[in-house]
Amino acid sequence: MIFALESVDMNIFTFDIETIPDIENGKKILNLAEGASDAEVAEAMFAKQREKNGSNFLPLHLHRIAAISVVLKTPSVFKVWTLGDIDSDEKEILQRFFNGIEKYSPTLVTWNGGGFDLPVIHYRALLHSVVAPRYWETGDEDQTFRWNNYLNRYHCRHTDVMDVLAAYQSRANAPLDQIAMMLGLPGKMGMDGSKVWESYLNNDLAGIRNYCETDVLNTYLVYLRLCLIQGKINNSEYQQYCQETREYLQSSKQAHLIAFEQKWSAAAVA
Question: Is the pTM higher than 0.85?
């Protein structure tokens, strides 16, 4: 059963990305030999970053998108999936992402999307010349975007749930995994972000996509709880939206989604 969103925005586009090192541009920037393997280039990139700050976490412009997973909620649709198919290249994935924004003008929902997901998407869209006028609109063509657009940190057309809950104070940021578990949600399943590159090297793109889908489900369900405490939905509506999600997962026939629902249900009765 599809429940209509009456008290909150009509179209909700919750998304999460998974990334790998941008090997091609890493070679250029580090002036590495053409014969170096992807693993060797990545390790050189990580080593350079460790020299700078002791971390393997690369600058955002050197991340390449491996997957974008979405929970789409409209008055007539509830769907969880990963954009493109397993063989889609990065440009196609990005184009599909922005096509969804062009079609639905949705509220984008993320966890740390302002600090990571969207800046990465910006750099990759720039690289691939992906045109997305609706996303970049700030009121010049559509006045409704002047005071509520996707780019302003304090507007709600993009709601970064982590940023909102932390009162826009970075020192108060919390990891999605722990907040999800606090709320009786599954949290991380299958892997975490630090394992994505290893999984990619092992040709397990399906595993990366499945992991991303469970992560975006955590984000969507935390967002529903945020809507509840903000008074945008009442408790009955909140329970209806959770039940809608459960029913979708139970009927999905995809093992990772069924496992997510089972773990969620088990936590509810524990």
Answer: yes
